[in-house]
Write a structure and sequence with these properties.
With about 450 residues, the chain is α/β, with parallel strands linked by helices. It has 3 domains: about 5-130, Rossmann fold, CATH 3.40.50.12160; about 135-380, tm_1862 like domain (pyruvate-formate lyase- activating enzyme, Alpha-Beta Horseshoe), CATH 3.80.30.20; about 385-450, OB fold (Dihydrolipoamide Acetyltransferase, E2P). Helices cover about 35% and strands about 20% of the residues. Helix 8 (about 220-230) runs parallel beside helix 9 and helix 12 runs parallel beside helix 13 (about 355-380). The chain starts with a strand and ends in a 14-residue tail after the last strand. Bound molecules: 5'-deoxyadenosine and iron/sulfur cluster.
Length: about 450
């Protein structure tokens, strides 16, 4: 009989990828995914520790899971609860102490051991698995799965050695590691065979990729992308997240020369002030970042950019914040993520002199207003023009599907219900700060539904 698995995912795309892979590891044991915790035999909270209140959120959710577990116990049914991801890595044993009804805890590098952990949990051993193993989990994961006509994630690099002073990632995900190109290529082929037509290459420092290449040399991300572009049926390649220090010339060239590589780059800068960037240990200046943006626009004129920003980093003055606003005005982002600095236990910046909360709030509001106006302007610039959209999911309205543009915009397409999983040409008719609306260039086109991503 099949068992029910519910995974709740918090945080970044790497966590979303890990959740999918946990599902793949558990499928041979008879676990099938369900949409919610009710009736699930196993609930996994795949947690994120990057910003504030991460632990509280997890304990809050665990409180709700406990109620469900007790309800099920009264019916004589079993329900197992696991805490995974970066909060698990950071909190470890503490989770079992504070929430003794949790059955197991494991970090982001150990989920290939799930079958073993489940056995121990069934024997009431409450396993806590936090090692960074010498042998990578990737070597133990089963074949990739993909939904036809979908965009798939593929982890190529993990971990980080950069130690930005605000960030927990080097502690929760461990040292930087790049997967061998042959493994990545094999998995990409599996994904495409199963119907994926877009692949997002994932890594905390993806552009620092330096995996063993097919020729025995170490390959850069650009070399890997060129090899991936040879796979028939793979229409779109993306990568995230990149660090300005690792933005190499060959990657910029690849954007100009590889048509499958999308003209969009998520390149976090965090701050526009050199003083703050130094305190953050970013090891680049605002001017160096702008040179990269301009060179990329030189390689490909339609490149669009997004970024991450932190306001209220310890010691940030009004003048430092103005430098961030000036950088944003200079770059002109298609989209961006901005956050108030949140002290993370164990990181150097948590020990520095903090900026008052009210100041952070005011700065965040100002920055977000500017970023939203830029996103709106970028989206509006598309009204009346045509673009390729990969139709992925149902929209709010009858007959409408939602897909992604080359620039990661969500595009709501009228009268497209027959074309799920296909790449279509869309004329943009409307825009807001968060999405576009449009119509098929050839209305009524039914496509060859046997062939996805046409
Ligand atoms: N406080 C606020 N934002 C943070 N980020 C990472 N750590 C922190 C922190 N302590 C943001 C950065 C990073 C993104 C993933 O999360 O902008 O690029
Ligand atoms: Fe964190 Fe900096 Fe590494 Fe990015 S580069 S994961 S922000 S330490």
């Amino acid at each position: 009989m099949s068992k029910k698995l519910y995974i709740k995912t918090y945080g970044c795309q790497m966590n979303a990828y890990d959740s999918t892979r946990m599902g793949d590891v558990l499928a041979p044991l008879g676990y099938a995914p369900v949409e919610g915790p009710l009736e699930a035999d196993l609930v996994i909270l795949n947690t994120c520790h990057i910003r504030e209140k991460a632990e509280e959120k997890v304990y809050g959710e665990l409180g709700r899971m406990r109620v469900e577990k007790e309800r099920r116990a009264k019916l004589g049914q079993k329900m197992m609860i696991a805490v995974a991801g970066c909060v698990a890595q950071a909190e470890g044993e503490e989770i079992i102490k504070r929430a003794p009804f949790v059955d197991m805890v494991f970090g982001p590098q150990s989920y290939h051991k799930l079958p073993e952990l489940l056995e121990k949990a069934a024997a009431r051993e409450k396993p806590v698995e936090l090692e960074f193993p010498q042998v990578q989990k990737f070597d133990f994961l089963p074949e990739e799965t993909a939904t036809p006509g979908s965009a798939a994630f593929l982890a190529v690099q993990e971990g980080c050695d950069k130690f930005c002073t605000f960030c927990v990632v080097p502690y929760t995900r461990g040292a930087e590691y790049s997967r061998a190109a042959a493994d990545v290529l094999r998995e990409a082929r599996q994904l495409v065979d199963k119907g994926a037509c877009e692949i997002m290459l994932l890594g905390q420092n993806v552009n620092a990729y330096h995996g063993a290449g097919a020729d025995g040399e170490s390959w850069s991300l650009a070399q890997l992308i060129r090899a991936l572009a040879e796979i028939p049926g793979l229409k779109r390649i993306r990568y995230t997240t990149s660090h300005p220090r690792d933005m190499r010339e060959d990657l910029m060239e690849a954007h100009a020369q590889v048509p499958q590589l999308m003209p969009y780059l998520h390149l976090p800068v965090q701050s526009g002030s050199d003083r703050v960037l130094k305190a953050m240990n970013r090891k680049h200046t605002a001017a160096e970042y702008i040179v990269i943006i301009e060179s990329m626009r030189g390689s490909r004129a339609d490149m669009a950019f997004s970024g991450d920003f932190i306001v209220g980093f310890p010691g940030e003055t009004e003048a430092d914040f103005e430098d961030t606003m000036a950088l944003v005005r200079h770059v002109g982002y298609a989209g961006a993520y901005s956050f108030k600095y949140s002290p993370r236990p164990g990181t150097p910046a948590a020990e520095m002199e903090q900026v008052p909360e009210a100041v952070k709030d005011a700065r965040l509001q100002r920055l977000q207003a500017l970023l939203v106006s830029q996103a709106k302007a970028f989206n509006e610039s598309w009204v009346g023009r045509e673009m390729e959209v990969l139709l992925e999911r149902d929209g709010k309205y009858e007959g409408q599907l939602v897909g992604r543009s080359p620039y990661m915009q969500a595009v709501h397409v009228r009268d497209s219900a027959q074309l799920r999983g296909q790449m279509v040409r869309v004329k943009i008719t409307g825009a807001s700060a968060s999405s576009l609306t449009g119509e098929l260039v050839i209305p009524g086109l039914s496509g060859d539904l046997e062939r996805e991503c046409a």
